[in-house]
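discrete fold record:
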Amino acid sequence: MLEINNNVKTLENKHWFSLFTTHKNMYTNKCEQLANEYEKLDEYLYKYHYRLKQGYKVVHFASRTIITIFGDVTFKRRRYKYWNQKSGKFEYVCLLDKEIVLLSKQRIYFDVQFKVLILLGDGKRYRDVLNALNHCYISKASISSILNKYDIAEYFQLAEKETKTRIDVKNKDLYIQLDETFLATLDQKVKQDQRIRLVTFHTGHKEKNYKNARRELENKRGHFLMLKVGKRINTMDYRDLLIKELQKHYVNINYDRIIVCGDGDTWIREIANSFGNVRYILDGYHTIKKLKQTAFNIIF
């Protein structure tokens, strides 16, 4: 019996080793393909007439390794020398780096950075991100530097500047969807738990004249508030903040036609009550969950 168990264990180990090898080879092949594509692009840039016209002269080949979503990619590219008229001196550049928007000292490529931000935005911990991207061999310090590199608030401010005109919502229902998530960040190498309140404003779904169309929100705008966990948020102050955001994006607001949507948390109900005579709607997932629980209680 012990011999049979050992044989089964051996077969199981062979199976997992074979599966691991297959995945490793798959990522390795992807990295080799990407490296070949980069080198082909570098060859194209070398033959491109613009290079000769601008006076770019090849100095030597230089290797570079970057971390992509598939793993480490190592490729060779040409380094050029050219005369910069503004600075009045010769300078060096790799045209391939400029073409693929690769910064001079950048080690982690943008696809990995965006994936890290997506995972953190979904509420994943640093350990979860490392497990999801274990083939990229990044560290917690790398995740922290990526998070600190992108000023999310600045992007929201830029988006607000692009929206110069306010939307007329006369005779329309105005929806306020509220949610809350938690995110762990590093501040001066000290872990800080952050609470993020997310709000989406919109006027319902766009009308589609064809079947099986993806439902899109109409006149959608967003806002978020990030605070350290444990810091109290006054209900009335937050209500006033939401009103300011509404007035920033919309005109002719009918406050009797505001509809607050959420997952049933107490703070969302308090916000809805603070507006006065507004409707509160539980989202679809939690509505079905409540109905199932109610049916279960009635039956049993």
Remarks:
- The longest helix spans residues 2-47.
- The two ends are 46 Å apart (CA to CA).
- The mean pLDDT is 80.
- The chain has two domains: 17-148, 151-299.
